[in-house]
Amino acid sequence: MNSIPFWNRLSTRLGLLILLIVLVLALATAILVARGFGALQQDAAVALNQLGLENNLPNIISRTVVNLLAVFLLTLVGATVFSRSFLTEPITSLVDATQEIARGNLGVTLPVTSNSELGMLATAFNQMSTNLDARTKELLAANEALKRNEAQLEQRVEERTRELMALLELSNNIALTTEDIPLIESIFDELEEITGANALVLFELIGAKFQTVVSRHELSFFISAKLMDAVEQKAMIHVLKDDVQQMFLPIFVHNKTVGVLALELDVNRQLSEEKVRLISVFANQAGVAIENMRLYTDVQEKAAFDERQHLARELHDSVSQALYSIVLGSHAAKKQLERDPKQAEQALDYVQNLAEAGLAEMRALIFELRPEVLEMEGLSAALAKQVEALEVRHKLKAEFEADTEPELSFATKQALFRIVQEALHNIVKHAKADHVWVSLESHPENVSLCIRDNGIGFDTGREYTGHLGLKTMRERANSLGGEFKVTSALGEGTRLQVVVPRSQS
Fold this sequence. Notes:
Elements: H1 10-49, H2 53-102, H3 117-176, H4 180-195, E1 199-206, E2 209-216, H5 225-233, E3 237-241, E4 244-253, E5 256-266, H6 273-339, H7 341-369, H8 372-377, H9 379-394, E6 397-402, H10 410-431, E7 435-442, E8 446-453, H11 469-479, E9 483-488, E10 494-501
Parallel strand pairs: 6-7
Antiparallel strand pairs: 1-2, 1-5, 3-4, 4-5, 7-8, 8-10, 9-10
Helix pairs in contact: 1-2, 2-3, 3-4, 3-6, 4-6, 6-7, 9-10, 10-11
């Protein structure tokens, strides 16, 4: 208010307007009264002479009133015009502009016609409207940018989710299968989609040499020294030549370098650090597949070695002893043949019994090595004969139960049969049991195999070095996509349960 000149203030103008109206009305009244008294004197003289005062007095009063009304109306009209120009129209314009802004038209402005309060109000309103318009445009631009960023973020989250799902599926496949080539091929599929690579090659490090595991398309050029550079530097090696680029990423498993992944891309294709990290993750998953295959091969070799050792012990403990006894018995029978034919006959019967027992033992061992009944009669029949052989050979009470022949592939049946063989071998060797139960149950979704004994049991939380039986059985079950559970306690026997899905059939 202090910045507005005194004569431009709205209050000053309103005060002057009221004062002007009062002065005009007072002046008009004074003039009319003076004129009325003058006219009254003249008219009084004339009236006295001609008609008398009573007849002219009303006319004088009427003219005076009419003149007063005319002055008042003119003053009122002037005040109305003045107030409309300086008050009503600016305020109406301000109200209309405010309603326009309320409707969203932020660009509306008012004309500034004076330096009064209304003029300053119009200026402030125009500034506010301009600021609102600019701020709204900024907010709209920021909102559009936020929408774009949100869309980009959603896309990145979707891509990241897909990548994580691919890694999760890949990890599950690595845990459930022993075939590394299909896994690596699926890894190559993901890498091609992520990088758009023209060629992919996975090299396995064996000693100080590299061996190609899987190759998808050929590299346009190859510098073998880059493989060892990646291993020694433990970092990605980048090579540019002509219109292509090559990347060599070392593959680590438990801080051990097991290979190198080579990628070839167009020279103009750029990969972000996040993409490179993701490539390294997939490459290391390929390394895990390679290492798992190595371990599985080692376990298979160890299992084969253990089976050979087991066969050698069985041959030594049973068949060899039987053959040795047959030799001794035959010599005794030969000596007694001339002296005492009856004693010789008894010796020959003894030799015959030993030979039959040895033959039965050999058949049992051959059955363990190649259970033809499994292929010809099925899993239930093979397990029944295995349990029967256990009862005959080791003098144990063994029981077998099965509802129906499970609908499984031959490979799955063979794996389950080997698990039972290993479990029964462990019972004979370690459990000191005299009663064994084996059951096979078929369900709509899976097949359950259970081996139970009443032996001494063991502590399942303890590590038993050198005993690979449980590990081998667990790996066989996992390779089928099944579950392997061991329940045991000291003095309470042991229970093994294997559940495999029917989808493996």
